[in-house]
Amino acid sequence: MTLKERLNEDMKTAMKAKEEGKERLSVIRLARAAIKNTEIDKRHELTDEEVIEVLAREVKQRKDAMAEFGEKAGPEYTAKLQGEVDILMDYLPQQMSEEDLRQVIKEVVAQVGATSQKEMGKVMGQLMPRVKGRADGKLVNQIVRELLS
Questions:
Q1: What DSSP state is assigned to residue 18?
Q2: Which of 19, 33, 39, 54 has the largest CB neighbor count within 10 A?
Q3: Which of 89, 120, 137 is at the close of a domain?
C-alpha cells in the first residue's frame, strides 16, 4: 500500500469515527491537499519518497510555527500544532536517534574528507539524501557544524 493510499484509508476511517476522528481528519485533509498541490506543480503523480518530502515539509512548518508563535499564541495553539505534528509523524519513516545520526554524519565527513566549515556544503550534499525524511534538517546542520569546528 502506498503512502497516498494509506492516507486515503485513514481519512475514511476518521470520517466514520465522527467526533473522535475530527482532528485527525482535518490534518489528513491538509496533508492530502499539500500532496495534490505538489503533484499539480510537478505535473506528475508523486512517489512515496516525494510524499514523504511533502509530509516532512508540513511537519517542519508546524514546528516552526510552534517556535515562532508558541508563547505568544498560548498553550492551546501549541497543543493543537503538536497534535498535528504527532498525526503527521505517523506517516513518516522512523526518525533516527541522535546517536545514529551522529554516526552517519561522522561516516560522511570521513568519506568526503572534510576538515573545516568551508567544506560543509560537500558534507551536506552527501548526507541529506541518506537521512531525508528520517532526521530534522536543523539538527543535522547543528551536528555537522559541531563536528567540523
A1: G
A2: 54
A3: 89
